[in-house]
Predict the structure.
Amino acid sequence: MSAVLRIVAAGPAMSVQDLGRDGYLSVGLTRGGAADPLALYEGAALLGQDPDLAAIEMMGAGGSFEASIDTVIALTGAPMRATLDGRPLTWSASHMLPAGGRLVIGGAQRGVYGYLHVAGGIDRPLEMAARSAHLTAGIGGLLSQGDALPICPSPEASGGRALTPQSRFEGGVVRVIASFQSGLFLPETRARLTRTAFRRDARANRQGVRLQSDGEGFHAEGGLSIVSEVITTGDIQIAGDGAPYVLMCESQTTGGYPRIATVIHADLPRVAQAPAGAPLRFEEVTRDAAIEIERRARAERDALRHRVFPLIRDPHDIPDLLGYQLVSGAISALDPHVPD
Amino acid sequence: MTAKPHIRLVGLTGLLVSFGSEMSEPANRAALAFRAAVEDEDWPEVSETMMSLVSVYVAVDLVTVPAETIRTRLEDLLAREDWTAAALPEGRTLWHVPTVYGTDLAPQLEEAAELAGLDPDAAIRTLSTTRVRVFTLGFAPGQPYLGLLGEAWDIPRQQGLTKQVPSGALVAAIRQLIVFTAPTPTGWRHVGQTAFRTFDQKADPPIALSPGDELVFPAIDRAAFDALATDAPFGAVDREAIP
């Protein structure tokens, strides 16, 4: 029998995600992929593997999991309460997961999307050149109890590594640049966009994140009848009710509602991970500044593996300290907290 | 009469070449031909291209590639010919999509006919015999925007949205038709129902249509619709090459 990660209990919105699909815009399919791609890079750094390998995305809450072989996992994105056979696991870290051990991941403490990575990646067959579920297009779908996801034996992988994640789980300032339709809005309306204190609306998913504010809406001049044009991820669309809607990885490919600005990609994880009610504010930057910010973000992302450090366990977190052999050196290879 | 084509930057992800600011047949034909020309150029900086109704999006990583480099090349390509006079491409397909008009399957046929100033039978006669062209695929995978219908069909989208039309729904507004890929809320009026799956993962490639293809929606009755064999790739449709 081939190796699997079994889903013993599934949270409400878990799906398999990688970096998504390029090349299908012309037939109406957006890239999709992880709502917080930075988390995929973090998981890859922790496990020493390719960021495009598929992981499990968990919106709001995780579930219970069991692997059929000894493997190594990493937990990234929105911090969630996690235990292995009842012992707490550090988030933003990698851990040994022994065959038959019970991994339980609870609700998000901050942020929205948590990620469970497995050494070697979730080895589901490619569909249209990727493994990610595209929920709005009906490719793949949500994971449910009893699903058994193929995984690969990865004897070289080791746990016990950690990473301090870039802070992005509580809203904050999001940088934007002008969109090709910004000119459809009065300068005063655009200025008001960056002065307004927004909160993330309850309506948010992989397609888009709606923002609410106390003031009036952000309508374009001359109403809403414009010819339908390309949508790119991060576009801030103003629909009929005047509320800004940040279009995310699973948005439609074209749209007839005007876009007032575009969130730069480096800051999209902050939008995706803002929990309902979190404060968000837009800051407009120039194209040149945006290019510089993107360059730096990419360089930091590519250097993540150099920021991985051995996970030192705080003795206060060890519930059964006396049960550990502290001196003999007979350290179990399966201890999730022993760096190599 | 179309405006001079213009080029705009799309965030840090690409450039947009537009052949007009509203839908027109020549602007759409220009976008179709121009996209093919950009694809033929095979510039290494371009990761993908797509056309919308009157524009071509050229995806380029503007973090690493100077926008001016690509803009200049696009301007040179634009200057090469009058793209609005370009011929339609070779190798197009004509699709026959049997359709039930009206009935409880497509409850807004009468309403749409009235807005078009036609009685329902005349509306069905027009809709079932007009050959329409795929202007673009978009919104959802493989979903076609089709047209143009005659002037009478310049009917507005409805103010409120229909909560949901099923996949395969044929809807009309602003002289265009759409066949919906997936169940969707919409402001377009539901005039017919087909058993066409425009995106079928069991087919290879999974997308039925290409921009430039043509479709005709012959009327069938409810009994014939219920008897349609829908297990073939893309559901109940026939196709032939356009010579």
In short: The first helix of chain A runs from residue 37 to 47.
